[in-house]
């Protein structure tokens, strides 16, 4: 039977994708609308009282963390790729580990360490005299230290990848003209790394701006913390909406910046063969110095916190403080995160598929809409959903569905990236080859496309699962009656300074996250 | 996707069915929580910390066999939640540490007036709503905690002294979300007027600097460690801290006790029954228990507070009821005073 | 062996003018005969937009067992033509017949999966998650299990990959991958085999070897094949019919020898080999040029000014030291030398001589014409529209 030529009509899949993208972009629109309908008087008041302080704090923290992560990340990446020393292979992988620790866990460990009368102060006082004080963790310095140690691996990974792919011919050409080593570093190597580093920095800043867990435990007033306080401390959401809007604008600026630099870094790749640089072997003195530096950073960022957590967990176990409730929280976490990840995968796949196979304006717009979740930090997404659900569909308020939707909005972008890149690796030739062999449509999808994208889907699912496990502010604000997750317990108990009680959930999360972090960085490593 | 070719081998159909079935299961599970619980159970929304309320409720559960499910959060947040949940709210009972929140709930018609003679007999009228939609259970006074090494009690006479620039960098205050701060400032406004309250707020904001805390316990800790010299807290935190660390150099200071003085600010923890509760009988049982002598004793003593049932003895470490006088602002007025107070606090820009 | 066979038949055609016209008649008659041809294209146009079609008005046909090569520079539309035949592109004009059945027209489009064409892609597109045996058996889902196994084994033997059934594509070399792709395309016994630049991904030494093997294989199995390439050596080596495309139009479709010796336009002449054009003047049964006189085989009577096409093998250096030619450059090619000779008028011609004797550069030489046929073109200013002057 002859088949008629298809007319161009939007397929049902496109309509579904449009619907999904609209739903995900809806909270952002609601926040915007809510903020803009706030009375001018409220805006004025906020501008004169809270906003300058919040702006100053957030910006200074972002810049400070950006600066220090840059220094740490680039120096470590440089030393690890350009030099050959004992333990080099270990350090290459060890510095990915700090990513496994959620920011609030690191913050709570540091409140213990740096508090008045804490161990660090005791050590310091034994050296510098009984009255000397170190800085309090509940300050700018505290937030700076915690967030730097938590996020420098982002810059480290990006710098390392860029350095690995840097064609040494550039540097050799510079050396042939007689330039000194330092000048080469500053005028050749770093500029070539610039886009990759810029992308990493913007990512870090985006992270700092949206972070809630660490700054709330350290009581450092940034936008996210202020929004949370407004939501929980006021009977109306006008001030919270206003602050949210500013936060979203911030996040948007940095997100766009990161994208832009990432795109540019692609053009900096060399054509033709890439010659890698040969690592320079180190003498004993240099090796000692490097090892000391690395050990210090690694201890502060991962080893010491994990050790303390293990220590407290064992103590808690000994005291019988790990009760059946702990497992209930763990189950809640797993259930919630699993559902959110699965739902996100189901929803994200049509979007990515359409953007790949039929990159029309509409489909690309849909998938960009799904990425709006990046600019909605936890408290803002929660606020948006609170407003939407209380005003439109109140009967769903307080159910787990609202929480899952919050996770979806916030984490779908993170999962979309592996899905998109997986689809892009499948050339259309596969489908055409299948067609020429008589296999098409759903059969082709089932036999060719699906097996090829399975790996990427798994990565996306795992990524979203882990992010959801660690999520804090939206869970705090939206969880149903009696439904606590591990993250919530950690935060609640850490705020009460019950270190021992908070340790088992924290340790569990870290144990679950470490393999995932390795999996992902390995994948990044493989992808040129 | 082709519209006019249906190539679906059996395996594909199985896959599709399984996939969508799983999806439906997930969605169904998500909608499940607000489902009726067992007949003999209660859902309690508590603005009071879990550790402080759970022991009382455990005793109640043990005595009556009624299971209790609890959601702990901030009182303000809970009121917002109750308002949004409306009729579908699973909450039966609302317990808070702050009468202002209860009053607000009452204004929003979320609470049910209770016609229980026991209440009339036991709790003085100043500590409950007019229609008994909410009842105070235990009283807490807002005192100054000072570090005995650094400060002499004579240096502070009134709460307003904390605004003095002498104390710059030496005090710790609760943040603007703190219901006690809001209640305290409300009382101050009612007793002394807006200008005084404004000056007070400005002063303590300048003096506290970064020492603004979300929890009273942290303020007491800070004073005990010597990080600051003074703090404003609810009284019982001091005694709780001293119970754990008897040798710490802290003590309470009851301000404004002179003849013409304002008196200490008093707030109360209270309970209200939700208007749409489906477990009314159980809820009333809980109320009865909490105002009974046993219930009051456990409830109050757990937190070293003042049981509002005058027949119940207070914890021996606390200052006796007669040894101080309280500001003469009725508790029921705290809610109506709240909005302008919030405006004032926002105007000053407290965190 | 096949090469000798073709030369024998060609020698009947080329040197005698009558047989040349016989060749053209053969080509013309082909397009009218729809019964025994496997593939027929009638005035096919196809493209991304109707204003700028990628291919325009293409007509050719292939008989059973033919190896037809679509030859042309990149962007000429040869891959589009191939994809239109395969069913991946819809045509906006014309008709395509496969095995006598209409498969494509502006109103009708039978999709690729129903056409039973085998296609080998440029990058092979082997399914990376399937083993070699599963790749080959991919199109055989309708067959019974034993039949499938049998067929897979047969094909593996045919392409010389016995023993590699359980390997994955990434474990194979380039040449082996190509053979698997070929086996996969041939497995479901397609009506026609389409190959898109089959040797572009291989090393040059590999290419030569694979070419002869592929040729042998296709002839043994009597597979009708359409090849796409931009390399004229490949086309000459493998195909028995070559269709040259230029900017979406079919300029000539002939046997390779005809294409080389009797190109229909200067573009074809230059594309398939070294060609020089010098002006000539028709008079007295001869065409006189500055090199010498060419015999007017076809008794051309018309415009006296013409362009004569000269291949390197049409000239010989008769004398060195004197003459009106000047050797500008010598290129050593192993068995021969290719000399670039500058004529007094400024035109350059090329001449091929055995490399045992070397004529020095920057020396005058005299040339002798040893061409057995003359190819003439109208002399116009736009060389694209120059058509060969045929009787």
Write the layout of secondary structure elements.
The complex is a heterotrimer of chains A (528), B (351) and C (391).
Chain A: H1 12-36, H2 40-49, H3 51-82, E1 83-84, H4 88-94, H5 103-114, H6 119-128, H7 140-164, H8 168-176, H9 181-210, H10 213-217, H11 223-233, H12 238-267, E2 280-281, H13 284-318, H14 324-357, H15 361-370, H16 378-391, H17 400-425, H18 428-436, H19 441-470, H20 473-478, H21 486-495, H22 499-526
Parallel strand pairs in A: 1-2
Helix pairs in contact in A: 1-12, 1-14, 1-15, 1-16, 3-7, 3-9, 5-7, 5-13, 7-9, 8-9, 9-12, 11-12, 11-16, 12-16, 13-22, 14-15, 14-17, 14-19, 16-17, 17-19, 18-19, 19-22, 21-22
Chain B: H1 10-31, E1 41-46, H2 50-64, E2 67-72, H3 75-85, E3 93-96, H4 99-107, H5 117-122, E4 134-147, E5 171-174, H6 179-192, H7 194-208, E6 212-213, H8 216-225, E7 230-234, H9 235-244, E8 250-253, E9 265-273, H10 280-291, H11 293-302, E10 306-307, H12 334-348
Parallel strand pairs in B: 1-2, 1-3, 5-6, 5-7
Antiparallel strand pairs in B: 3-9, 4-7, 4-8, 4-9, 4-10
Chain C: H1 2-13, H2 17-32, E1 37-47, E2 53-63, E3 67-71, H3 78-86, E4 93-98, E5 101-105, E6 108-109, E7 117-120, H4 132-136, H5 145-159, H6 174-186, E8 192-196, H7 204-220, E9 225-229, H8 232-238, E10 241-246, E11 249-254, H9 256-261, H10 266-272, E12 276-283, E13 286-288, E14 293-295, E15 305-310, E16 315-332, E17 336-342, E18 348-354, E19 364-369, E20 375-378
Parallel strand pairs in C: 3-9, 3-10, 7-8, 8-9
Antiparallel strand pairs in C: 1-2, 1-4, 4-5, 5-6, 10-11, 12-13, 12-15, 13-14, 15-20, 16-17, 16-19, 17-18
